[in-house]
Amino acid sequence: MYKLEYDLCVVDEIKIQPFKAYFQSGWPIYSAKFARFRMGSSKLPLAPENYVSDENEGRLVADDNYIWTYSSPEFPMLQENILQSFKLPCPVLCIGGVLKIELLGRVQKQVIDDRYYICVPHVEVLGRALSPKLAVDSSEASDTSVPKYFPDAEVASTVDEATGPSSWTENILNALLRPLQLTEKVEESTEQKPLSDSS
After folding, report:
1. Is residue 75 part of a domain?
2. What is the top-level taxon of the source organism (predicted)?
3. Which CATH number characterizes residue 12's domain?
4. Number of domains within the chain
């Protein structure tokens, strides 16, 4: 489970490097057969100090504590000690800034205990943030995520020196933050009422 830097971002690619145990005979690589990726938001606060007690063990990774908005197909992994690239079929809008990497199928046993293990020392997530001014508020009660706008948040740089302000960022912000137009239906009455009471 990974908390991305921004709550709203577009993810294109994920890179994973399996662990090679140079200290073990034969230098085994503890890879998985497949990798699958989920993106979404947490219903719980993601501060690590909330999960250090025995009673909370497992809450951080329990699927019912998340709202998953995307699940990738399974990607085959190589049993090689290289940074392996998994390009998503299309760019994915990650709402909530949470990435879960599911490593499926163990292939390497450890000689000491004759048990299968998977180990990953390095992960990279490639994409772009929509805006640091946008965040997501998730509700455990209703399983919903609501975008929040923070106009005072600092923006690192939204200006491309060659083209000026980023138009795709502006378009997304305008679509998300446009004012709601509510209409109210008023029942018409045939009874005439005085416009003022001067008695």
Report:
1. yes
2. Eukaryota
3. 2.60.120
4. 1
Contact yes or no for 35/75 (Cβ under 8 A): yes
Task: Look at residue 178 and tell me if it is in a domain.
Answer: no
Single-letter residue type at 197: D
Neighbours of 100 (CB within 10 A): 16
Give the CA distances from residue 3 to residues 13, 81, 92, 96, in Å, rounded to whole numbers and listed in that order: 16, 25, 16, 9
Q: Is residue 191 part of a domain?
A: no
**Is residue 193 a part of any domain in this protein?**
no
In this predicted structure, what is the pLDDT of residue 145?
58
Convert the pLDDT of each residue in 76-93 to its tens digit.
999 999 999 999 999 999
For every residue of 40-83, which 3-state class applies, written as one string? Answer: EEECCCCCHHHHCCHHHCCCCCCHHHEEEEEECCCEECCCCCCC
Write down the pTM of the prediction.
Answer: 0.67
Q: Which of 129, 138, 136, 134 is nearest to 158 (CA)?
A: 129
The lowest-confidence range among 41-55, 71-85, 171-185 is 171-185
**Residue 138 buriedness (CB in 10 A; 0-12 / 13-18 / 19+):** buried
- pLDDT tier at 180 (50, 70, 90 boundaries)? very low
Domain that holds residue 67: 2-156
C-alpha 61/C-alpha 3 separation (Å) is 12
